[in-house]
Structure formats: C-alpha cells, structure tokens
Amino acid sequence: MWSAARTAGTLFGAGSEGGTVRYITTQPSLTKTSIYSRAEFSSTQGGDPSYEAGVAVGGPLVQDKFGRAALGLVPQGRGAGSTASTL
Prior knowledge:
This protein has strands at residues 4-10, 20-25, 34-42, 50-62, 66-76, 83-86. The strands form two sheets. A four-stranded antiparallel β-sheet has the order 3-4-5-6, with no helix packed on it. The protein has a two-stranded antiparallel sheet with strand order 1-2. By secondary structure, the chain is mostly beta strands. The chain has a domain at 27-86. Strand 5 (66-76) and strand 6 form a beta hairpin. It starts with a strand and ends with a strand.
C-alpha cells in the first residue's frame, strides 16, 4: 500500500458485509516525472529472512494533458510472491 495517497475505511459499510476499505491512489503529475523506491529486509531468530523491494514511477505522457503511474513490487519470504501493477 505504499503507493496509496491515503486509505479510508469503516467497520460497518452500508451494503458491504464486514466493512469497506477504500484505497485512494496517488495521481500522476501532468508536469513532472517522479521516481520513488524502497527496500526492506527482516530476519527472525530461527526463521528464514525476508525482503521486499519496489519502485514507483509517474509522470506525463503528454505534457499538461495525460499522465501515467506504474508500480513494481518484489516481496520474498514465507508466503510471498511477486506482483506488478499500473495505475
């Protein structure tokens, strides 16, 4: 969820059993390109190490008219896979 601008949720959403969580994504800029990256590593005594690395890129495709954002995430560890998405 590190590419989300914010999240909003409620335990009791009308028409949704168990509540609702809404992810509001960061809008790509129409005027400048931005790159964000992060990496994490963790270890548990007696367990396997795990890590996560990711990068998000956003910016204009047509200056002042159309922008796009892309996110790539590589988690590694127990129960982890890899995923990539575009917004």
